[in-house]
Amino acid sequence: MTTLGIAITGSGGATPDTALDNDTLSQIVETSDEWISSRTGIRERRLARPETQLCDLAVAASQQALEMAGLAPSELDLVILATSTAEDLFGSASNVQHRLGASQAVAFDLTAACSGFVFGLVTAAQFLRTGVYRNALLVGADILSRWVDWSDRRTCVLFGDGAGAVVLQRVEEADGLLGFELRSNGAQNDCLMLNYQPEAQSLVEGVTVSQGRYGRIAMNGQEVYKFAVKKVPEAIEKALFRANLSTDDIDWLVLHQANQRILDAVAKRLNVPGEKVISNLARYGNTSAASIPLALDEAVRSNRIRPGDTIAASGFGAGLTWGAAIFKWGDFYREA
Ligand code: ACO
């Protein structure tokens, strides 16, 4: 029987043009470039204009990924949009599918906050490994600037907007997804939330519904920090174990770009040298589901990550959710 697997054959990224640096941000809240850069490594972030849609960024990133993969949109069977900030609560993936011209693809949103890309990667891979689909597009896109409290210095300094995408293709007798580990812990849900705030509205005598609105991001930064530095190395180690690999086999660590201190602590715990850690958070901040594919795409386009390289990616965030995927970049099976 033929064994089916995946190859990740294209990547793309898109960020808004407007940049807000730490000094300018300190005109809005009581903070400083010194505080933000020493605690997080972030120096500036990109912010979407009011008229920019999430789909604009998602489509731009996707087109780049398709071009790199040499695939026409009409050849896609599946589009997954990992996002927590869809403009349409019913989902924005179909809009991306339509605007790309991916007429044959089924499209749906996947919500797992900053773990969305890793969760989406594993989800897409299942459809390809079973032989049901041949070509999949995974987009991670978020515009968190619409949901942060711009008067809360503990959170507004951290986030930025963007999109990143990858193309996954089915291959035979090889599998670029070497191992993964996905986890959730709803017991710590209150550490990071963007909640619906109900407002009771009476319709008729005895029938009351809620007509509320979504609030703003609320986060216990210290708890999230502790969670990340403990759980991310564990997840990567489990995924490596399933791949029958060790940390020495990792060419690149591509972690969710939340905080440079988290990246450094995770690398240290895993004994992965700093030069193998991809980081672009200084320029973009935390772009949630977009951060891993954005960082991956930059590293691919600058020829740091090369076909056949082994990547350990890990996402973590609200839910709480976290996960790791060990995968090979590019048409590795053709290079061999
Ligand atoms: N500027 C200046 N001072 C600040 C700022 C700021 N922007 N933010 C907080 N402070 C102050 C606090 O008020 C506090 O002052 P106090 O001691 O007088 O009360 C002091 O700095 C220390 O605050 P801490 O919260 O202890 O700072 P910490 O070193 O923990 O850093 C941070 C905070 C950067 C948020 C860190 O905890 C962190 O990175 N946590 C992880 C957060 C994260 O990654 N979240 C995203 C997850 S992904 C997702 O799903 C969206």
Share of helix, binned: 25-40%
Major sheet strand order? 1-7-6-4-5
- Report the top-level CATH class of the largest domain: Alpha Beta
Distance between the termini: 22 Å
Query: Order of SSEs, N→C?
Result: EEHHEHEHEHEHEEEEEEEEHEHHHEEH
CATH architecture of the largest domain: 3-Layer(aba) Sandwich
CATH domain topology of the largest domain = Peroxisomal Thiolase, Chain A, domain 1
Query: Based on CA inertia axes, which overall geometry fits?
Result: globular
Could you report the average pLDDT, rounded to the nearest whole number? 97
Number of strands: 17
CATH superfamily of the largest domain: Thiolase/Chalcone synthase
Heteromolecules bound = acetyl coenzyme *A
How many domain regions? Answer: 2
Contiguous helical run count: 11
Rg measurement, Å: 20 Å
What's the main sheet like?
5 strands, mixed
